[in-house]
Amino acid sequence: MAEYGKRQRDKPWIMRTYSGHSTAAASNELYRTNLAKGQTGLSVAFDLPTQTGYDPDDPLARGEVGKVGVPVSHIGQMRALFEGLPLDQMNTSMTINATAVWLLSLYVAVAEEQGVDPSVLRGTTQNDIIKEYLSRGTHIFPPVASMRLTTDLITYTVNEVPKWNPINICSYHLQEAGATPTQELAYALVTAIGVLDAVKATGRVPESDFGKVVGRMSFFVNAGIRFVEELCKMRAFVELWDRVAQERYGVTDPKQRRFRYGVQVNSLGLTEQQPENNVIRIVLEMLAVTLSKDARARAIQLPAWNEALGLPRPWDQQWSLRAQQILAYESDLLEYADLFKGSEVVEAQTQHLVDSAWAEVQEVLKRGGAIEAVETGYIKQKLVESNAARLRAIENGDRIVVGVNKYIESAPSPLTENLDDAILTVNPQVDADQRAALARWKIERDSAAVEKALGELERAAKTDENMMIPSIAAAHAGVTTGEWANTLRQVWGEYRAPTGVAGAAVKTSGTGAAAETIDKLRSRLHDLEARMGRRPKFLVGKPGLDGHSNGAEQIAIKARDVGFDVVYEGIRVSPEQIVASALEEGVHLIGLSILSGSHLALVPEVAQRLRDAGLGDVPVVAGGIIPEADAERLRREGIAAVYTPKDFELNNIMSDLIDLVDSQHAAE
Amino acid sequence: MPPSDPGDDAQHVMSADKAAVSRALNLVEDRRPESHARVAELLAALKDAPKAAGGHRVGLTGPPGVGKSTLTSVLARSVRQRGRTVGVVAVDPSSIRSGGSLLGDRARMSFDPSDAGLFVRSLPTAGEVGGLAYAANSAVRVLAAAYDMVVIETTGVGQSEIDIVHVADTVTLVIQPGSGDVLQFLKAGIMEIPDILVVNKADHEELARRAVADLRGALRTAHAAGASGGQDADWEPPIIATSATKGTGIDELIDALDRHRRHLEATLAARRRQGEVRWALDLFSRKHGEHGVSTLGGVAALKARAERDLDAGETPLSLCERLSREYVETLGKTP
Lengths: 668, 335
Ligand code: B12
Ligand SMILES: Nc1nc2c(ncn2[C@@H]2O[C@H](COP(=O)(O)OP(=O)(O)O)[C@@H](O)[C@H]2O)c(=O)[nH]1
Ligand SMILES: [Mg+2]
Fold this sequence. Notes:
The complex is a heterodimer.
Chain A: E1 14-16, E2 18-19, H1 24-36, E3 42-44, H2 48-52, H3 75-81, E4 91-94, H4 100-113, E5 122-125, H5 130-136, H6 143-160, E6 164-165, E7 168-170, H7 172-176, H8 181-202, H9 210-216, E8 218-221, H10 227-248, E9 261-264, H11 277-288, E10 299-301, H12 314-330, H13 344-366, H14 370-375, H15 378-396, H16 429-444, H17 447-461, H18 468-477, H19 481-492, H20 512-532, E11 537-541, H21 550-562, E12 565-568, H22 575-585, E13 589-594, H23 599-612, E14 620-624, H24 628-636, E15 641-643, H25 650-667
Parallel strand pairs in A: 1-10, 2-3, 3-4, 4-5, 5-6, 7-8, 8-9, 9-10, 11-12, 11-13, 13-14, 14-15
Chain B: H1 6-14, H2 18-29, H3 33-46, H4 50-54, E1 56-62, H5 68-81, E2 86-92, E3 101-103, E4 118-124, H6 136-146, E5 149-155, H7 159-167, E6 170-175, H8 180-187, E7 196-199, H9 205-224, E8 239-241, H10 250-264, H11 268-295, H12 299-311, H13 316-333
Parallel strand pairs in B: 1-5, 1-6, 2-4, 2-5, 6-7, 7-8
The structure holds cobalamin (B12), guanosine-5'-diphosphate and magnesium ion.
Guanosine-5'-diphosphate sits between chains B (64-70, 105, 108, 200-201, 203, 243-245) and A (375, 377, 498).
C-alpha cells in the first residue's frame, strides 16, 4: 500500500452548486461565500422570466420574479451579479437556453466593461433547445429559429471566445422526464448530431475547423440510483461520442473526440418522505460519474437532501458540496487508474447500452432527426411512456423506494421538525422591488440608443447574420431581456411543444389487486356518467411560467385511463386561458399543477377568475411542490385538495377526484 | 345548477354568450333519456337563428398529426381578423378500455382568452365506432347559432369523413407531403373526394410543389376510375398548400372556403337538409338496427318520411325520438 500523500493524485473535477435567487446583489453575495467554501466554479440559476424572455413587469412574470433563480433584466444587473468577481478568473456555467445568446451577450459586455478581453472568458452556456421542448420547458421560438440562435452562439464563440463551452448537450433533463439509460444516451446523441449538422449547414465554419467545433461540444448528464448501470452508461457515452465524431464528422484528433461532460445527479428520485435518505442516494449516484477514470465527469453539482421539499438553503447546499470534497480529497479514488478496464461485467453492460442506444439513434435519424422527432412528438411521447412505467412500478411496489413504498416507519426526524423552515423562502417583496428597479432603469438609459439597438436586432433577425453581434450592442445600449425577446418573437413567432400525452400508450394496469383497483375506479366513473348524463370532464392546467410537466402529464394520463375526459393544454398557460378553457369546455373539475413555487400567487388568482366567470362551483385541486403551511392556506381559500410528491399513489388521487365530482353533482 | 329554460338559453346562445353556449353544449352531450326532450327543444329553438342560415360549417379532416389543430388555430385567427366570429368543435377518440379520453387539440391552439368571438370545444367520440362524436351534430348546430363560421376538426381517414359530410357545408381534407395512404384511398375510390384539399406542412416550397402535383395526379386517376365526385359535379376541388406553423397559404384557404360557400348558395339548404336526414336515420338505426329500419318501412320510406317531417319543422333529434316511440309501439303490438 502506498504511503499517504506519496501517490500521484489526479486533479479533481470542478465542484459547483447551482444557485441564484431574489436579486443580482443577493446572488453575488451567495457566489462569494460559495467560492470561499472551496467551490471551484460558478453555476448560475436564472429565474423563469429571465429564462423565457420576460421582464419583471410582464403579466406573465407574476409570482415568478427572483423565485427559482436570479433575475437579470439588463447589463446593470449582470454587472451587479459579478461585482468583485473578475471575469477573467471565473469559470461560469449559465443554465440558459432560449435566451442564451442574450445572456452571453450581457456577460461579454460586462467583461468588456471590466477591461477583460472576451477571448479569455471561460464557462458554459447550456444553449440546448431540443431538451427544452422535450423536458425543461423554457423554449420561446419555433425549432428552426431556435436552432439558428444555437448555431449563432456556437459559431461566434468558436473564434471570439475560444475557451467557452458554447453548448451543453443535456441528457440530464431527459432522465428527469423519465428517460431510461438507453433513451438518455440516444436522445442526447441525436441532439448533438442535430446541432452539429445545423452548424455545418451555416457554412460559417471551414471544413478544416470543424474538428474544433466538435471538440467544444460538451454534455450535461444525469446519474440515477441504479448506479452500476449508470456507470456503464457514462462509458457507453464515451464510446458512442467517439464513434459519432469520427464516423459522421471525420474528426481525426482523438482529443477533439473526447466525451467531456458535467453532471447533476438524479433529483427525480429524491423523496419527500424521510428526506434524509436522499443524501445516501446522492452519494451513490455521484459514484457512477466519478469511479471510472476513463469516463469521469469534468464538473459536478449535487442536489440537496431537501430537494423534494423546496429550494435548498446555503447549509443544505454546503452538505452536498462536502460530499464531493470528501470523495475527492479524503478518499483515495483519485490515486488510481481506471478501475473497470477489463471488467467483463462492466464491459458487457456497457456494450449492451451502446447497442441499444445506437439502434434508437438510427430510429430517430430515420424519422428525420432530432427536430423532426420533437415536432412530431415522437421523443416526448417515449419519455412520457417511460415515466408512466416508472411511476406505476413504484405504485405497484415492483420498484422499491426506501421510505416511500417500503420501510416506511420512522422515528421522528430532527431535520424535519419544522418543515416550513427547512427550505429557502424568497421574500415576496422581490417582485415589486424588481418592477420598480426596472422602471428606474428605463428612465435612466438613453432611449434613442435602445431604439436603435432594437431596430438593428430586428433587422438582423430577418437576415442570416449572427445574432451575437447586434445582441452585444443591445446589451451595451441598456436593452432589457423582455425587449430583446419580444423583438425576436415579433419576427419568429412562438412555439408550443407537443405534450406527448394524447398518444402515450400505457401498458395495461397490471394484474391482481392493481387491476382490480382500476376496474373499480372505471366503473365508478361509468356510474357517475350515467347519473350525470355526461362523462366527468377534467381540466389539468399549468399556470405561470413553470415548465415542470411530469406531474401534470402523469395525472392527465392516469385520469384518462380511469375514464375521465381530460383536457390538457401543456405548460405555460395563463390564468385567463385556463379559465377560458374551463368555461368553453364545460369541465366538472380543475386541477392545477405548480412546482416552481408560484402557487400562492397563481392558484388563488385562477380561483378568483373562475368565480368571476360564474364557475365558482367547479371544484379546484392543486398539486406540486407546496409546503404544508401554504397548502393549509389554499384549502382555507376554497381549494378542495392539495397533493405533493408524497402522494405517489395515483389511484388514491383518482379516487379522491371521483369523490369530488360525485359530491359536487349531488349538491346540484 | 337548476335546469334553465331552453327558450331563454337559446336567446343567450344566439347572442354568443359564452356561458350559455357552454351550457347548451353540455346539454347536447347529455345522454340521459330524460334530457333528450330538452335537447330537441333547444335545437328547435336554435333552428332559425339568424347566424345559422348565413353561416359556414367547415369540416377539417385527415390523418392524425398532419396539423389540423394547428391549422384550425391560424385559420380561426385569420377569420377573426376579417371580422367574422368562429366556433370550433374538435373531436378526439375515446379510449375503448376506459371510456375516457385525452382531448389534446386545444393544446395546439393559441387564442386570445378574452376574445368573445371565438369559442373552442373538445368532444370525445364516446364510443361511436369510427364516427363523429355522439354530440357533434348537435354541437355544430349550437355553435352555428352563435358564430359566423363553425370549424369541425375530426381525426382519421375513412368513416369519419362520411360522417362529416352530414354536418359540414365544406369538407376539407388535410394531408401532409408524402402521405401515401391518402393518395391511395383517393385513387382506389375508398374515399369520397372532399370539397377542398389542403397540403399542410408545406414549409419548403419544393416539397409543397411536389405534394400538390402528386395530389393532382391522384385526383385525376380517381376521376378516371369514376370515383364519386364529391358532392357536386360543378365544383372542381382546389388544392391548397399551407404551412400552419409559418402561417402561409391561409389567405388562399380562406378564399377557397369563401368561394365554396358562395358556390353552395343555391344548394346549401338542400345539402344541409340531406345531412339532417342522414343524421336522423343514422341515429335511429344506431339505436334500433336493421330491424328498426325495416319495421318502419325500410330505408327509402324512412328517408322520404324524414324529408317531409323535417320540412314541416321537426328537428333530427325530435324526429328520431318520434320514430323510436313508433317502433317501440309497433313492437308492443306484434305478438
Ligand atoms: C423533475 C424535476 C425537474 C425536471 C422537469 C421535467 C419535467 N418535464 O417535468 C427539470 C430537470 C427539467 C427541472 C427543471 C427545473 N427545476 Co425542477 N425539479 C424536478 C424534481 C426533481 C421532480 C419533479 C417531478 O417531476 N416529480 C415527479 C412528478 C410525478 O411528481 P410531482 O410533479 O410532484 O406530482 C405529484 C404530486 O405533486 C401531485 N401533483 C402534481 N401536480 C398535480 C396536479 C394535479 C391536478 C393533481 C391532482 C396532483 C398533482 O401528484 C403527483 C403524483 O404524486 C423536483 C424536486 C422533487 N424531487 O420533487 C425539482 C423542483 C420542482 N425543480 C425546481 C427548480 C427550481 C427547477 C428550475 C426552475 C431550476 C432553474 N432555476 O432553472 C428548472 C426549470 C424548470 C422550468 N422550466 O420551470 C425546484 C422548485 C423550487 C420551488 N418550488 O421553490 C424543485 C423543487 C427542486 C428544488 N428543491 O430546488 N426540474
Ligand atoms: N413543420 C410543420 N409542422 C406543422 C405544421 N402544422 C402543424 N405542424 C406540427 O405537426 C404536429 C401535429 O400538429 P396537430 O395540429 O396537432 O395535428 P393534428 O393531429 O392533425 O391536429 C405538431 O407538432 C405541429 O407543430 C406545419 O405547417 N409545418
Ligand atoms: Mg388535432
